Amino acid sequence: MRRATRMLDDGDADCVVGIGGGSSMDTAKAVALLGTGDTEMRAYKAPVTTDVPALPVVAVPTTAGSGSECTRFTIITDSETDEKMLCGGLAFLPQTALVDYELTVGMPPRLTADTGVDALVHAIEAYVSVKANPFTDTLALAAMRTISANLRTAYADSSARAAREAMTLGATQAGLAFSNSSVALVHGMSRPIGAHFGVAHGLSNAMLMPAVTGFSIPDAPVRYADCARAMGIADSSETHDSATARLVDELHRLNRDLAVPSPREYGIDEQRWHELVPLMAAQARDSGSPANNPRVPATAEIEDLHWSLGG
Ligand SMILES: [Fe+2]
After folding, report:
1. The whole model's pTM is what?
2. Range of the domain at 77
3. pLDDT tens digits for 8-29?
4. Ligand 1 mean position, distance from CA 236 (Å)
5. Helix, strand, or coil (residue 222)
6. Which of 46, 79, 193, 221 has its CA 20 to 30 A from that of 246?
7. Domain check: are 126 and 90 in the same one?
8. Cα–Cα distance, 81 to 196 (Å, whole number)
9. 178 shares a domain with 293
10. Could you tell me if 120 and 144 lie in one domain?
11. Residues with beta carbon < 5 A to ion ligand 1?
């Protein structure tokens, strides 16, 4: 990122183009802001909101996941502390998004699964967030419907064009939804796992999703039941309890179908994990995401949740 910022300083650019997955587009957003001054990125870390103008960004996603092409957030790792910093504000909203599913055709299965689950989590968290609103609800429910109907097909066949197109649409809808609502506990806890153990963002989301959803359902049972119905795994005649039970089952099943490893299977050292939990919990809270959940978990609960992933 420093090299890109230097190039911007030395050149005569009037915009920054980010092509790639979430990290590439997030880097472009950060460079577009840093290029306008000489501030360090950590000055923009949440809860700071940065609405000052940056250079215009043109975002071109080549995965169907992050939604970064249409969000006002960027995630940048602080190389001194290993913290994945959430930075938000209109400064990070791209001026233009070029969204073309053809760029995602041929994505390998692991990347398809990880980015696709990330998009599903964006939609669910945008819908259960206390910041949800009628505009984001419509987008989030549409994204859940589309992603759940197509993720397994896209994972199984890298050239399944209709599924790729649907996943691309769903990921962008989910991005619009969470950018105007919020993500929640899964993301707050997922970023530290990625930063400290090098787990890909979507994969750490997937590891956390069933357990964190089970933990969070009592705070928003009706909303989670709506998610189950939008995903086509419960119908309107079922009770909320039945629908939310189906949701947790489906998230476990999805992880099995997409070959998501547990932290232990991934090779994460249990002792190191436990040593880092207080820091991970603090960083999760600092990111602002867990505060959007009505019940912010204590450090011990975060530890329980993390390691209940077992395996
Ligand atoms: Fe995400």
Report:
1. 0.91
2. 2-99
3. 888 889 999 999 999 999 999 9
4. 29
5. helix
6. 193
7. no
8. 9
9. yes
10. yes
11. 118
